[in-house]
Amino acid sequence: MPSSAIQFLTRTGQMSSDIRQEFILLSDVLGVSTLVDTINNAKPPTATEATVLGPFFTEDASHIPNGDTIASEGKGDYMFVEGRVLDTRGNPIAGAIIDTWETDHNGLYDTQLQMWHVQYTGRDKPDCRGRLTSAADGSYSFRAVAPGFEKLTTALYFEGDPYLTSDAVFGVRTSLITKPEIVTDEAKTLARGFANAKPHAYLNKDFVLATPEEGAEARKTVSKPVQ
């Protein structure tokens, strides 16, 4: 049995690469990542809830201006996302870095294209991911960090998704389930910078960051022994 376990861990390491972290995925599916995240990244009730980073984050996302696209044409139905980054008192946070990534319409991240040659030839540059900065009023349009506030790693989930209750990495939080609006005004589609005049999904989501003091207080609460 020990030998089998070592072989399993060895094979896991052999499958890992600079853009494919199998040990993180193993930790995720065993629920270890979620447990550690719940304890170490607890947030106050008024802040946006955190969730696991997951194995598909990369450091090479392109910097884009607000309102620009993170996905190349043909990767799925259009969706426009916007909101604000705020502190727990509702004040805007300027200069917060928002690192965002998503799957294409096949449910694949760009890092998986080397393994699954579905429609694409492989990953030669980052796609369906981008890095942008909140404006002076805290607004952004399309992960958020700013001086004086805690780092937030989170994710958004869509209402009605059949996998909400069977997430393999236990990352779904009720507060992170969203319901995009379908915009049928094709003029608005073009005004938002999409290439073709057709309906698109629209999502408006504010992210609320906690200060280090607020985060520390929240972690004290979750780390208290159960009576």
Task: Explain what this protein looks like in three dimensions.
With 227 residues, this protein is α/β, with parallel strands linked by helices. 21% of the residues lie in helices and 17% in strands. Strands 1, 4, 8, 9 and 10 form a five-stranded mixed beta sheet that branches. A three-stranded antiparallel beta sheet has the order 3-2-5, with no helix packed on it. Strands 6-7 form a two-stranded parallel sheet. The protein is globular.
H/E topology pattern = HHHEEEEEEEEHEEH
Largest sheet: 5 strands, mixed
**What low-confidence regions span 5 or more consecutive residues with pLDDT below 50?**
116-120, 143-147
| Helix amount | 10-25%
> How large, in whole angstroms, is the Cα Rg?
19 Å
The computed structural class is alpha/beta
* Termini separation: 37 Å
What is the 3D shape? Answer: globular
Overall residue-averaged pLDDT value: 83
Strand % is 15-25%
State the total count of DSSP E strands. 10
Q: Given the structure, what is the number of helices? A: 5
Key words describing this protein structure:
alpha/beta, 17% strand, single chain, five-stranded mixed sheet, 5 helices
